[in-house]
């Protein structure tokens, strides 16, 4: 029976630990794991549904690790003088999810894989309505095709990792791999933390 399990949280809160624990669990339980992250790094594309057949577990991430997701990670959320608005980010994430869910996530669930994902549509609902300039209203964001498809895909379990904003910044500073993302500011991290803890978010999921 398929399950969709996702990790959410503010910056530096421990989602990488979640992914490493999934890999350790799969190895310990002799599960055949398909890492979307490793596949994309090797092939520079997303797999077809046929390529994930025969596996027990899919390890994914959002944004996706290639194509539109790569542009989001290495262009849209980087600190530089090319500014992308909350609305533009919402639209980009939506298109990325439309392809990711049609091509990978939903086929994996349909054939019975357990899908673990570093972030989900929940991240967009937390981040993009407060991303300056021109944040996208939550209702408009949820109406976009890719976000809607993701919201229609049942999440069975959501692990939310949260740390104090000051601790978040300390962990980010200690990282060997620097993302240098526009979200890595104390005030923004504090707002993210507040939104994850809100009643509306808990009711939605």
How would you describe the overall organization of this protein?
- The chain has helices spanning 15-28, 36-43, 68-76, 86-110, 121-127, 138-143, 145-151, 165-174, 186-196, 199-204, and strands at 3-9, 33-35, 57-61, 114-118, 157-161.
- The protein is of the alpha/beta class.
- It has a five-stranded parallel β-sheet, sandwiched between helices.
- α3 runs antiparallel to α4 (86-110).
- The model has no long low-confidence stretch (mean pLDDT 95).
Spell out the blueprint of helices and strands.
Blueprint (H helix, E strand, L loop, with lengths): L2 E7 L5 H14 L4 E3 H8 L13 E5 L6 H9 L9 H25 L3 E5 L2 H7 L10 H6 L1 H7 L5 E5 L3 H10 L11 H11 L2 H6 L1
Parallel strand pairs: 1-4, 1-5, 2-3, 3-4
Helix pairs in contact: 3-4, 4-7, 8-9
In short:
Helices cover 50% and strands 12% of the residues. The chain has 205 residues and is an alpha/beta fold. 36% of the residues are buried.
């Amino acid at each position: 029976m398929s399950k969709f399990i996702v990790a959410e949280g503010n910056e530096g809160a421990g989602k990488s630990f979640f992914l490493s624990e999934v890999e350790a669990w799969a190895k310990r339980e002799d599960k055949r794991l398909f890492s979307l992250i490793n596949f994309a790094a090797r092939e520079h594309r997303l797999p077809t549904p046929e390529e994930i057949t025969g596996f027990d577990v899919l390890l994914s991430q959002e944004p996706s690790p290639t194509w539109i997701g790569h542009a989001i990670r290495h262009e849209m959320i980087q600190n530089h003088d090319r500014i992308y608005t909350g609305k533009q980010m919402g639209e980009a994430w939506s298109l990325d999810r439309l392809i990711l869910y049609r091509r990978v996530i939903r086929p994996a669930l349909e054939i019975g894989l357990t899908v673990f994902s570093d972030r989900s549509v929940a991240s967009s609902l937390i981040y993009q309505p407060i991303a300056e300039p021109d944040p996208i209203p939550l209702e408009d964001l949820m109406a976009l095709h890719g976000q809607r498809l993701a919201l229609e895909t049942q999440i069975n379990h959501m692990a939310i990792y949260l740390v104090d904003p000051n601790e978040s910044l300390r962990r980010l500073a200690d990282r060997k791999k620097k993302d240098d993302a526009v979200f890595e500011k104390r005030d923004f991290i504090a707002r993210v933390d507040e939104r994850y803890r809100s009643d509306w978010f808990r009711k939605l999921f």
